[in-house]
Design goal:
Chains A, B, C, D: This is alanine--glyoxylate transaminase. The structure is a homotetramer. Chain A is α/β, with parallel strands linked by helices. Chain A has 11 helices and 11 strands. In chain A, the strands form 3 sheets. A 5-stranded mixed sheet of chain A has the order 1-10-11-9-8, sandwiched between helices. The radius of gyration of chain A is 21 Å and the shape is globular.
């Protein structure tokens, strides 16, 4: 069942799904359980309480939906809106494009930005690639629905769409006329009241995995997790600069600490870089999608990851760049990144 | 993270989620992978081909949707029907009740049975509790959509809704007007054509788990799997009879080889049986749901299970019955079941 | 890699190696680690402290030797004795026979019992099949060396021979002239003093597994673990009696709560029972060894095991007995055992 | 149970125990089994046959002893020699020192090298750090006993001492008078004849793990495994050179492709490098032992490892060197190593 064995560890640097900590893999290594016994609700209760912390909300209501990020999007939209409602969306990349496409197919209209701070619109945020990795403050920023997926910065397998709704969003869900059953928050809320929590069968393994993932995040400290992502993001960008390549993101304020899209010179096909990284160095990089297919490759640097893993990846990218004919100076990106990291990496608190 | 530790193994006899084979737990014990690398499509291709065998279809098109049985239902309905369409449903228990409820909430109407063999209606079958356990022949029986969930007879964790569509159902999906995105078959079909298979991120672990689960089913032989379920179902019913209790299923032709609902005498609360089984004997039984709450308990006997596991369960049920005051003769159910099993259990082929 | 797949769970009732709790399997599911980092000594320190509790000693010194029970024996002997020393041994079964054989091959002499309470002899106890399952009190009983193996009542994989030495035994090890290096306690003691604990590389996985196993034993309570073994042992003996068969152990005071050897009628080959149990019912029983080969089969009932697991086994034994022509009344043993268990099994404390 | 959690993966570069492939971890993730059932001997038979390939012997007899490398040494000596026999040993590092110490404690004498090609002496080789990593040819080189440990290049947990004996060595074992029981080959040979293979209980998990480990080695190809070790060794040495540091191994012909001991300048304590690597970068390096304690640190580069893992380690070493005040040019070692690796690393055959 391992079609493509290569010696040593796969270096997983796609922007999701990401590396799972051994502790989480262990926690999920188990038989099924009766989800109607007292054990699973007791576990679920702790998860619903603790998952709010990664959204930085105390007043939000979380839903752990057995789905992907795409499903989490659909849950956010169909629970708060009625067909024909207007949405103002920001088009800032492939996944916003896909979300806008979903909005249209679900019969919402995309309108223009409305002036005025006091507009009663709901504020929905796709945090799939940011929550648990970047500074995110649902309550403070007045967000009504925020969502993420388990396979991103939480470093779990795919399978839980985590959606968090403000009181205003919950209220909207009582009157929203979009047709929905599987994604309906009200079914969850009914079972929350009963204390059994689940309108249908959850994945026992993912619940224990989520418990372990949250425990690790809290042990490291959410702010330290975010600082680590900032550090790895900056190190990556310094390497890209040292290689003489451009970040696909044009403004510094838009830089992402979870993924870096690197623009390759016109004579190089970025897909060849991704293919070769995997075929020769057991390194998994992300393809450029849609308009930037062939023009960029992506380095995902989110989730359960540390400095030396990233430096191994950067060393690999350098070799692939050389492989495909780009005149990179081997070691240059690693040197730039490690100069920064050697200054900024803290000691591991549990080991001091 | 184990709130309710009890010595020895949990005896899991709810009708889902069911016991996972060690081989499948092992196959899922892994890090994430890039689902856009050549490995995952290669694996997926084998799954899509092989999963058709458990439906006994060669012409159907399967979808492995990251969802639960409830989501698989929704996928079956929204891809084939338009709002206002009429459905004739059979109300034969709690889950048919829930499906009918879903149908109504999705704006389909429930009508009466229509006479005539040649009606052009689509034939949709909820096989969540039967596929891979009971004789099921999608092609031969002219079924248009059949579906199951990974946590049932396939003996996986929850997380894949497996839906199989006939050519007629696929054709219907081209014109069905139900609003859908996450569950839209057409998104899958687009990626099937591309050979990348996934419109959004699948669970890497469940894909490898499904591979292992199918391998085990084919190694045992699907017909032998079905025969095993028939044997365990019959053994359970013989035990119930020996205890002097009634099967909730009133006609023999309706007996299920995957679950037996046992009616308790009026002076006994069946919930107390379920609670006590878990609290004293580490035995997980199913509650009676809805109208039969308190009146029946359920013994699930599906999935990765053998004779002695069932006999251990039956011995446990006897003790619990005695615990709650029912005058059962200890050993009577086990005797009846094992008399049957000692006659009918085949040798394990790989060990002869 | 699964040569002999059979559906459902293997029913493991040999007297070792025994069933491993899922919690322990999980704890061992990990990569290697540097055993010279601070983490492994910190873990080891807790193990050495806590393992003393299963011997009921506060003054003993434990050794966690990467070996089997046979190696633990050799460690006990060679560290305390010099060639030519005399040992008084009790011959009470196959493993005492093997230990006596080892004693002779190691150049110790087997002598007769010496009168007098005050003899300065060391008191060595092979507790491989009893420690953690039966009442055992090293300090109170004045035992000088006690030992067990990880794959027995501790319910781990094979691989740690656990030896505990009294102060008197340690003193003897300073002058014992038996040639030894791998098994030499003094090498361990040297590293104990250094705080690094290991004279050579331990199994990282077994150390974490032992931690989890001890945690489970302490959570259940060692006295409750022992009571559970007494309960399962008695239930097994009642079943044997109900079948009309004899316990190979002739005096009640010698009955073992960890294994029951069942004598079969002269016309039946007990090996055929063991073979058939495995081939037809996925039940693993123990063969009769040496003089009782073909005459007895053994039911191991030690380690991580509960009432319904045992009843499943007993139901299986009944069917096999019938298979081989013994006129057993099906259900009789299960009835006798469950009558006793239904009276004596406590509620699981964590679930009340 | 994780005392010292740090984010991301531990970078394990001690010269053993080494990184375990996920495939092997999976294979070991299992319950115990009856080792007297037909399954375990069938598995063992394949292991004994296949393990000979890593020794490059067809005529040797292998023993899979539940012990460590130290135990494997003891097995090699006590089965072939009698007390008072003379051994000529080569003192070439800490582990040869320990083996010589063991030889003396086991009452063999260390003598001088004897001239003459035709001396009847047995030729014993400690291959713990080389077999499966370096070119090793037992038959061709006329070796009588070769041995390794599971936790080295085989990339398993500690727990199997693998010893392979020539016909001449086996013959010697018939008359060798060293006292031994646990390590006695003759006990194994007796059970080999019976076809049950095990004189005492093996670790079920390690047997399945060894099967998986051998399968991976054969899939990669033993010669390619050796070439990979040569490549990683050379890359490491080039990095050390680029850092301006010295290899502790003075002659090029003595360079090891499994470990590189790096001499630090007199003003730096190499232990501080090892401590800091672990505390700050989650990097596990080996300490200098005995005479070179504080003067060298060791980079283990054996077992399941690839180019980018090594480059991550080298980047980490550079940062630690800078941390402790050594004026390293960051990126210099990585540049030297990757210049070499970019030229020499083959494509992964299964992915071409």
């Amino acid at each position: 069942m391992d079609y493509v064995y290569g010696p040593g560890r796969n270096h997983l640097f796609v922007p999701g799904p990401v590396n799972i900590p051994e502790q989480v893999i262990r926690a999920m290594n188990r038989n099924n359980e009766d989800y109607r016994s007292p054990a699973v609700p007791a576990l679920t209760k702790t998860l619903l309480e603790d998952v709010k912390k990664i959204f930085k909300t105390t007043s939000g209501t979380p839903f752990l939906i057995p789905t992907t990020g795409t499903g989490a999007w659909e849950s956010a939209l169909t629970n708060t809106l009625s067909p024909g409602d207007r949405i103002v969306s920001f088009l800032i990349g492939q996944f916003s494009l896909l979300w806008i496409d979903q909005q249209q197919r679900l019969n919402f209209f995309n309108g223009k930005k409305v002036n005025g701070d006091r507009h009663p619109a709901l504020f929905l945020v796709d945090g799939v690639s940011s929550i648990c990795a970047l500074d995110f403050r649902m309550d403070e920023w007045g967000i009504d629905v925020a969502l993420t997926g388990s396979q991103k910065a939480l470093s779990l397998p795919t399978g839980i769409g985590i959606v968090c709704a403000s009181a205003k969003a919950l209220k909207a869900s009582k009157t929203a006329k979009s047709v929905r059953v599987f994604f309906d928050w009200n079914d969850y809320l009914k079972f929350y009241k009963l204390g059994t929590y689940w309108p249908y069968t959850p994945s026992i393994q993912l619940l224990y995995g989520l418990r372990a993932a949250l425990d690790l995040i809290f042990e490291e400290g959410l702010d330290d997790v975010i600082a680590r992502h900032a550090r790895l993001g900056q190190a990556t960008r310094l390497a890209v600069q040292a290689w003489g390549l451009k970040n696909c993101t044009q403004k510094e304020e838009w830089y992402s600490d979870t993924v870096t899209a690197v623009v390759v010179p016109p004579n190089i096909d970025s897909s060849e870089i991704v293919r070769r990284a995997w075929k020769r160095y057991n390194l998994s990089l992300g393809l450029g999608l849609n308009k930037v297919a062939g023009k960029v490759f992506r380095i995902g640097h989110l989730g359960h990851l540390n400095e030396l893993q990233l430096l191994g990846c950067l060393a690999g990218v350098e070799m692939v760049l050389k492989d495909v004919g780009y005149p990179v100076k081997l070691g240059s990106g690693v040197a730039a990144a490690s100069a920064y990291l050697q200054n900024s990496t803290p000691f591991i608190p549990s080991r001091i």
